[in-house]
């Protein structure tokens, strides 16, 4: 599976520089990438100052790439909010959405894995606005699943279950990125079907416990 970054508009030197820089940072690490490398990968003549007409430094380019990704994630979150009832009703659709979002975050994730300790502000923004927000959204789904059988849902239980359920999908995708193939060669459709069954089985088990 080819790494994917934030959605970029077609054309435009600035957008090409953003896409090229993010890909190179993910592949090589921030320090190993030179300005000329980014310019060349963007289809520009290297070391002629093209990048500096749009970004004052590599750090500024990476910050802009993260900002662009956060905007893209916010758009996806808005879609999620608008379709939240559909995702609550169908764990399979939710699972497919999670995998698609993970794919869009692949390059940013690789950059932060390599250089997060030196890009602390960007790392923390990504954690708060993307990772933590994703877990909060999953917590709301867990609460909705349980609300039909429980008058009140323990907040910490819902948080912990959200981490475990969402973490299962995240780990499967990240394992595929790291090792080059999914566990057992499972397809996305198989992963999603099994994950939905896991979610539904857990909810059914909680309902049976409540009525026992």
UniProtKB/TrEMBL annotation:
Pfam families: TetR_N (PF00440). InterPro entries: Homeodomain-like_sf (IPR009057), HTH-type_TetR-like_transc_reg (IPR050109), HTH_TetR (IPR001647). Residues 36-55 bind DNA. Residues 11-73 form the HTH tetR-type domain. It comes from the Bacteria. The keyword Transcription regulation applies. GO terms for molecular function: DNA-binding transcription factor activity; transcription cis-regulatory region binding. Keywords: DNA-binding, Transcription, Transcription regulation. The keyword Chloroplast does not apply. PANTHER family: HTH-TYPE TRANSCRIPTIONAL REGULATOR BETI (PTHR30055:SF234), HTH-TYPE TRANSCRIPTIONAL REGULATOR RUTR (PTHR30055). This is Transcriptional regulator, TetR family. It comes from Kribbella flavida (strain DSM 17836 / JCM 10339 / NBRC 14399).
């Amino acid at each position: 599976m080819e790494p994917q970054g934030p959605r970029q508009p077609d054309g435009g030197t600035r957008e090409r520089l953003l896409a090229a820089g993010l890909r190179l940072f993910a592949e090589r690490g921030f320090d190993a990438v030179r300005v000329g490398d980014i310019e060349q990968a963007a289809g520009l003549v290297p070391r002629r100052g093209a990048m500096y007409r749009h970004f004052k430094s590599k750090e500024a380019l990476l910050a802009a790439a993260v900002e662009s990704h956060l905007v893209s994630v916010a758009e996806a979150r808005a879609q999620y909010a608008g379709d939240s009832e559909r995702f609550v009703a169908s764990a399979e659709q939710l699972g497919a959405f999670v995998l698609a979002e993970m794919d869009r975050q692949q390059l940013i994730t690789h950059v932060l894995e390599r250089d997060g300790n030196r890009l602390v502000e960007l790392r923390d923004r990504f954690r708060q606005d993307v990772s933590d927000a994703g877990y909060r959204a999953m917590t709301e789904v867990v609460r909705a699943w349980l609300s039909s059988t429980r008058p009140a849902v323990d907040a910490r239980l819902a948080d912990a279950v959200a981490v475990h359920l969402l973490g299962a999908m995240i780990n499967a995708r990240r394992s595929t990125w790291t090792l080059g193939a999914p566990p057992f060669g499972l397809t996305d459709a198989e992963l999603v079907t099994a994950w939905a069954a896991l979610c539904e089985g857990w909810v059914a088990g909680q309902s049976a416990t409540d009525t026992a």
